[in-house]
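Subject: Sanity check before I submit

Could someone independently write out the structure tokens for this chain? I want to compare against mine line by line before I put it in a report. The sequence has 230 residues.
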Amino acid sequence: MADFQIAPSILSADFARLGEEVDNVLASGADIVHFDVMDNHYVPNLTIGPLVCEALRKHGVTAEIDVHLMVKPVDRIIPDFAQAGASFITFHPEASDHIDRSLQLVKAEGCKTGLVFNPATPLSLAEHVMDKVDRILLMSVNPGFGGQSFIPHTLDRLRQARKMIDESGYDIDLEIDGGVNVKNIREIAEAGARTFVAGSAVFNAAQASDPHHYETIIAALRAELAQAKI
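---
Independent answer below. Compare away.
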């Protein structure tokens, strides 16, 4: 079986006790902390910044923090997140005047890189920088809000991205973000994704029953992944 990773988005967590929420979800089997940064400019919401990332590290979080920058421009904020403890820094091509330069900046700051593609953004924008990209993230919703439904066309884009990555020969992760849940995660994996961002599917489901335990939903996601034919 492929090495699948589950990355709950803290956008759906209880921010009044964020450290505890992150501890609980990681202890319950999640692999990565997905960290959504929105600027009320590139996308129509305002969320969290480097200080929250730094606070999680000081709290004791050692797992990979996958910082998804939905901000424009990106270059100014990249060093701040690197210093705050980000593992990956991913950004949207539309938010950078020079994609190659922004990727080099992330690398220079000691982080792994990622490019994020909105549902209508051509994947061809990654072709000239495949040697500098560690992760390609496909949005399966329009960025800016949590709790949206998965856009079915994304499955075709995942297959296209999987083909691009395999043919490139580079070790590039393929991540999906938006509307991922127990009902569709197997099909998403079969289309090529290896890392799965799930916000409301994890946090909201757990909060509805027991806010301190996420084992049931994460185990259900992994059970579906175990049946994926890839």
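---
OP: Matches mine. For the report I'm noting this point. DSSP finds eight helices and eight strands in the chain.
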